[in-house]
Amino acid sequence: MVNDHTLSCKHLIGIKDLTKEDIKLIMHWSGKFKEVINRPIKKVPSLRDITIANLFFENSTRTRLSFELAEKRLSADVINFSAANSSVGKGETLVDTVNNILAMKVDVVVMRHAEPGAAQFLSQRVDARIVNAGDGTHEHPTQALLDAYSMQSKIGDLQGKKVVIVGDINHSRVALSNIYCLKKLGAEVAVCGPTTLIPKQIHHLGVHVIHNLDEALAWADVANMLRVQHERMDKAYFPSIREYRMQYGVNMDRLKALDKIPLIMHPGPINRGVELTSEVADSKHAIILDQVENGVAVRMAVLYLLASQTDHNT
């Protein structure tokens, strides 16, 4: 299987649409591209004849830069589009905007949008490969893939491993994509946070709910810490930041009290002093910068595999 270049899908809209074999194929090529980006010459001509447009209708720094670097490492031609400086502000529709860009002979569109389902909507209406770089509170598939790849690189096969996702599960597209990806790879998944920040029906996804952080950390091989997404909140979900930090923030004293310290991860941006202290974020227990590096390799793999498909694979 790993010698194949073919995913089962034409687009990467969400982890929910991928098979376990798709995920393993992406992991395989991520490993190959990780070797590339650690060479003195960090470029390969794999997508030399491919044009990729990055459409970001929502603010992003790490994801946009990671995709752009991945594209350039693959020798693709890159167009960067920012909604703030576009005709979207004049009332142009999403489909018209993208079709105008595709008229310039673009092959792949990487899109982040505030509306859940925007990437799916677009994939049904335009003739290009679509990569979802985050759609509202729905999914963020490449983040889940790079998180899983980062875990695998440190602790091996994820079958039977225990991963807890801590924080604002309710508003997080990272959490949903991570749950789908980890479950497909055979991991045991739990979520931890205030009751108000955990969806009521989340047990339907086959995850445990642990409200006590110390219990969750003692159970886990990996703790993936999420920030509280104040920008998506329309009301108060907990009494205060101080209260949240006391109950759900990880500091070094909390880790030292454990028999076994789990791997600490964070998709960024970190609210230092809230979900993680700087001492923990910068410690040997955290692999946050590894996640950033792996993100480029994983996105290279995704773009390479999607762009390599011929029309008969659609």
Number of domains: 2
Name the CATH superfamily classification of the largest domain. Aspartate/ornithine carbamoyltransferase
Radius of gyration: 19 Å
Rough shape? globular
Described by strand count, sense and barrel closure, the largest sheet is: 5 strands, parallel
Low-confidence stretches: 230-235, 310-314
Report strand order across the widest sheet: 7-6-5-8-9
Helix content: 25-40%
Quaternary organisation: single chain
Under CATH, the topology of the largest domain is which?
Rossmann fold
User: How many strands in all?
Assistant: 9
Please report the distance between the alpha carbons of the first and last residues: 19 Å
How does CATH name the architecture of the largest domain?
3-Layer(aba) Sandwich
Assess the beta-strand content as a share of residues: 5-15%
**Average of pLDDT:** 90
Counted by DSSP, the helix tally is: 11
What class, by secondary structure content?
alpha/beta
Instruction: Write down the CATH class of the largest domain.
Output: Alpha Beta
* Element-level helix/strand string: HEHEHEHEHEHEEHEHHEHH
Report on the structure:
The protein is of the alpha/beta class. It has two domains: 15-139 and 293-313, Aspartate/ornithine carbamoyltransferase (Rossmann fold); 141-289, Rossmann fold (3-Layer(aba) Sandwich), CATH 3.40.50. The protein has helices spanning 20-37, 62-73, 94-102, 118-123, 141-155, 173-184, 213-219, 241-248, 252-256, 278-281, 288-308; strands at residues 51-56, 77-82, 108-113, 129-135, 162-166, 188-192, 208-210, 222-225, 263-265. The strands form two sheets. Strands 7-6-5-8-9 form a five-stranded parallel β-sheet. Strands 2-1-3-4 form a four-stranded parallel β-sheet. Helix 1 packs across helix 11 (288-308), helix 2 (62-73) crosses helix 11 and helix 5 (141-155) crosses helix 6. The longest helix has 21 residues, at 288-308.
